[in-house]
Amino acid sequence: MSDKEKLRLDKYLWAIRLFKTRSIAADALEKGRVKMHGESVKASRAVNVGDEYEVKTEVKKWVIKVTGLLANRVQYAEAIKYYEDLTPPEEMERVRFQAASFHTGKRLSKVGRPTKKQRRDIEGFIDEGEE
């Protein structure tokens, strides 16, 4: 990336994998979920090395410092080299204790609807009780 080009904030947040899509990143910026020095910033804002942002995602509230500019989405192991995670430890603890299924919307294994065998057993039990 040359010095003349400017990297948009929405593209950067997507490239470092804080958001799944660029449109979700832009939407978060539009709704004021990304702040710099306590002030909401726009998606078109140019990113500079050394900038610090507070980013509120569905999962947690990040505090990141830009250590390098990244325009294209890369694998996670590579992406983490372009920012420094300054998220407070108490936020990390809060996230750790939340159920993993809370954010995905999926049920935990072995919880929820009965299996076919369990359903048959229930129906057999109910039928026996009516006689």
TrEMBL record:
Boundaries of every RNA-binding S4 domain copy: 7-68
Signal peptide region: none
Short name of one Pfam family: S4
Sequence ranges of Basic residues compositional bias: 108-119
Keywords from the named record: DNA-binding, RNA-binding
Positions of region (Disordered): 108-131
InterPro entries the UniProt entry points to: HSP15 (IPR025708), S4_RNA-bd (IPR002942), S4_RNA-bd_sf (IPR036986)
Family the UniProt entry places it in: Belongs to the HSP15 family.
Protein name: RNA-binding S4 domain-containing protein
Annotated source species: Pinibacter soli
